[in-house]
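Protein Entry — a single chain follows
Next Lines — sequence and tokenised fold
***
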Amino acid sequence: QVQLVESGGGLVQAGGSLRLSCAASGHIFSISAMRWYCQAPGNQRELVAAITSGGSTNYADSVKGRFTISRDNAKKTAYLQMNSLKPEDTAVYFCNADIRRGPFDYNVWGQGTQVTVSS
């Protein structure tokens, strides 16, 4: 069984920083893209940032210049460094990854971690 476990969420004041981690575990042959999504109450889940296995990245316009996605392939872990946080960044943040096990590819979600930014 493959799992993604997020950590690092919490409560922070506006202007502060948080670093989220997403660790993959289980019998994994390889991980291609890793992504972070956010979902605020009443809203749809939205893509925040993505990174390929080669390190290419893309970001939602709302977080460009403030958030940085990175990964450590040896640790099977992705990170989201969140700086200059705003109250509107408040949401549950989910990790998502494309994982290969044997001949099959799976799209896997983590359970989410809450980020709350106070004004």
Residues 24 and 62 are 27 Å apart (CA to CA).
